[in-house]
Write a structure and sequence with these properties.
This protein is α/β, with parallel strands linked by helices. The chain folds into two domains: 177 residues, 3-Layer(aba) Sandwich (Rossmann fold), CATH 3.40.50.2000; 177 residues, Rossmann fold, CATH 3.40.50.2000. The chain is built from 14 helices and 13 strands. A six-stranded parallel β-sheet has the order 10-9-8-11-12-13, sandwiched between helices. A four-stranded parallel β-sheet has the order 4-5-6-7. Strand 4, helix 3 and strand 5 form a beta-alpha-beta unit. Helix 10 packs across helix 13. The two termini are 18 Å apart.
């Protein structure tokens, strides 16, 4: 598996990659990871028992991808007798080189698109479009994690027969509902207000997630006239504005502690879901968000912006309510709809997560894809 961002760099796509890898390992497969080193130096390390090779790259080069490709080619040549399948997490220009390398090495390849209106955006009106498109046409299978991404692959002129719709998965044994007493206990253990409902946001603190917009509106509208306390948990964005945005969010929390709490990301994030009453997710663009899947598995009703990815998971009146991106009036209405019947909506969300997104079932679909690709190549 190849991904540009792996731990210690935070990435939702990487979290999915390791979740899938863990399930595949339990089924008898061997998985190893390759990424690029963000300090430029090659190193080998282990994450969750999986070997990871961070490739040496020229981090200051104008076309950094050339050094990534050179190091990746050397690594794959060295590992050619041990590896059966090349699985790229991301269908970006840089990852799409797997198609060429797979053809040269006689290995089947697949790339998984992780974000709507992002992975494939350079295929339109871009100087790298011809190269990106040529590389992708050498890839054996394209994995779309949402209907939006499935349509994007087709709209970009890629072969429909190679497009597989396999959604992200969730560990429904780890992310599981708790009763009201346990919820209050979990909130108290996290030093959160246990006596009032808690709306939880989980995600990177960046502009795409619209977390600053949410906190500003929450303060300006005094929690929309409810007694709900908003808790935001997430890592700092890698973008240049990341540190400043984090400071702004923490400053708002210090100024309005009765309304909001802001916390750094916790590896034990399941505790926060189990302390919450509902999920609040205003992101303007997603692939198929881990956060919503995890909240659903924990039996939380979801209030989410109607955005690519999120709108596939959150269905009005079924497992939550939706609102237009950056529309505070619609958010107010959606929030009240969910607060009126959180138990029913949350139970339905848990049912949907178990029936359609459990990681065991998702791993089976990847196994079927791997088997088809290997059979096609005669491996």
């Amino acid at each position: 598996m190849f991904a540009r961002y792996l731990p210690p760099e935070y990435s939702g796509a990487a979290a999915q990659a390791f979740l899938l890898a863990g399930e595949l390992r339990a089924r008898g497969h061997r998985v190893e990871f390759t990424t690029q080193s963000w300090n430029g130096r090659r190193r080998e390390y282990v994450v969750d028992g999986f070997p990871v090779t961070a490739l040496a790259v020229r981090v200051r080069a104008k076309h950094q991808e050339f050094s990534v490709w050179r190091s990746l080619a050397a690594h794959l040549w060295q590992r050619r007798k041990a590896v059966d399948i090349l699985h790229g997490h991301g269908a970006y220009y840089t990852q799409s080189i797997l198609g060429l390398f797979g053809r040269l090495l006689g290995k089947p390849t697949l790339v998984k698109a992780s974000l709507s209106q992002n992975d494939l955006s350079s295929l339109s009106h871009s100087t790298i479009a011809p190269v990106h498109r040529r590389f992708l046409r050498l890839v054996d299978a394209y994995v779309a994690i949402s209907e939006d991404l499935k349509a994007e692959f087709a709209q970009k002129g890629l072969a429909p027969a190679r497009i597989w719709h396999i959604p992200n998965g969730v560990d429904t044994a780890r992310f599981t509902p708790v009763d009201q007493a346990a919820r209050q206990t979990a909130a108290a253990a996290l030093d959160l207000p246990a006596e009032c409902p808690i709306a939880l946001f989980v995600g990177v603190f960046d502009e795409r997630k619209r977390i600053a917009w949410l906190l500003r509106e929450w303060v300006a509208r005094r929690a929309f006239g409810t007694d709900v306390h908003l808790v935001a948990v997430g890592p700092t964005s890698r973008d240049t504005y990341g540190a400043a945005l984090k400071q702004e969010l923490h400053a708002l929390a210090r100024e309005h502690p009765q309304l909001i709490t802001v916390r750094d990301f916790s590896p034990d994030i399941a505790r926060y879901y189990q302390a919450a009453t509902l999920l609040l997710f205003p992101s303007l663009r997603e692939g198929l968000p881990n956060t919503v899947l995890e909240a659903m598995a924990c039996g939380l009703p979801c209030v989410a912006a109607r955005a690519p990815g999120s709108r596939e998971l959150v269905q009005d009146g079924r497992n939550g309510a939706t609102f237009a991106v950056d529309d505070a009036t619609e958010l107010d209405t959606a929030l009240r709809q969910v607060l009126a019947e959180p138990a029913r909506l949350g139970a339905r969300g848990r049912q949907l997560a178990v029936e359609h997104y459990d990681i065991g079932a998702i791993a089976e679909r990847y196994e079927a894809l791997y088997e088809q690709l290997l059979g096609r190549r005669g491996v």
